[in-house]
Design a protein that fits this description.
This protein has 292 residues and is an alpha+beta fold. It has two domains: 20-189, Alpha/Beta hydrolase fold, catalytic domain (Rossmann fold), CATH 3.40.50.1820; 195-282, no CATH class. It has helices spanning 119-132, 165-176, 195-198, 274-282, and strands spanning 36-42, 46-53, 64-69, 92-96, 152-162, 183-189, 203-206, 213-216, 226-227, 230-231, 238-241, 250-253, 257-258, 265-266, 269-270. Helix 1 (119-132) crosses helix 2 (165-176). The longest helix has 14 residues, at 119-132. It is elongated. The termini are far apart.
Length: 292
């Protein structure tokens, strides 16, 4: 049976696969397979905490393809995350804690210093991929196939990233591509590609419940503001809004749109686009002495 799903560099939509139920379940498959935790070594950080979730029903009779998900790094969570529905399609799911981060529920932690998707984080992602593809052992000297109850198809390993983690995925491919040749594909879902999108200056999904309703900057007009390699907004009305609802202050496009939600926060600083930051100075909304 063909093991490789897609042998292409980048996939930006959904992989269409036969339903898992159409494949035989091996007799050695363990029902309700529990998560497996392990440690791998990564330079320069030290040990990296890895979580592996075997599927209940492996996709193929030979075993399960492996999906490595890139965690959030703009808004790092103190817990292992699982956004991808890997189990429902018979995939083995692999995720990890960034250097310097600890999973609160289990107490499992990665060594090193957290650098918000910087070189240390990207190196850790590289080594998690190498572990998932069977190229390196864990700190106990064992390969991934030796510590899970389901056979991992280490020749069918892909990378998955939803939203801004796609930046880290692209960075690991760009900077360590020759070291992760066992990786077969990358699935990027809604990955932002510019600082305007990263800082949600065109809008975001919000409301009482996440994703409930769109909050749209009315100054963003498609296709007028959109170019293949950039997005252009009118920053001439940018001001620094301080009121009861925003005591710490935030950028506002006149009275039309307030940029106060879902903004990247790193090193305790909010990050906006270069164009917006320059406009705050040009409009004298902020000065060097009043800069927050």
């Amino acid at each position: 049976m063909k093991k490789a799903i897609l042998r292409i560099a980048i996939v930006v939509t959904i992989c269409f696969l036969p339903p898992a139920s159409s494949f035989a379940v091996p007799p050695w498959q363990t029902p309700n397979a529990p998560a497996v935790f392990t440690l791998i070594s990564s330079s320069p950080s030290g040990t990296i905490a890895v979580k592996i979730v075997p599927p209940h029903n492996p996709r193929y009779s030979e075993g399960a393809p492996v999906m490595v998900e890139v965690p959030e790094f703009f808004y790092p969570k103190d817990e292992f995350r699982q956004y991808a529905e890997a189990d429902s399609i018979g995939f083995m799911y692999v995720t990890f804690m960034w250097p310097g981060k600890k999973d609160t529920p289990t107490g499992r932690a990665s060594q090193g210093t957290y650098d918000f998707g910087g070189p240390a984080c990207i190196a850790a992602l590289r080594d998690v991929i190498r572990f998932a593809t069977g190229e390196i052992k864990n700190t106990d000297g064992k390969y991934i196939r030796e510590i899970v109850p389901v056979v991992p198809l280490t020749d069918n390993v892909g990378l998955y990233a939803f939203s801004h983690p796609g930046i880290a995925a692209v960075n690991v491919l760009a900077n360590h591509g020759k070291e992760i040749t066992g990786l077969k594909y990358f699935i990027g879902r809604e990955n932002p590609t510019s600082d305007v999108l990263l800082s949600v200056e065109t809008g975001y999904w919000g409301g009482k419940n996440a994703g409930e309703e769109p909050k749209i900057n009315p100054l963003y007009k498609y296709p007028g503001c959109y170019q293949p390699s950039s997005i252009t907004l009118d920053y001439s009305t940018i001001k620094w809004l301080v009121d009861r609802a925003h005591p710490a202050g935030c950028p506002a496009f006149g009275d039309l749109y307030v940029s106060d939600k879902n903004v990247p926060i790193m090193w305790n600083k909010r990050y906006y686009s270069i164009a917006l930051t320059k406009a705050l100075v040009a409009n004298k909304a902020l000065t060097a002495s009043s800069w927050p």
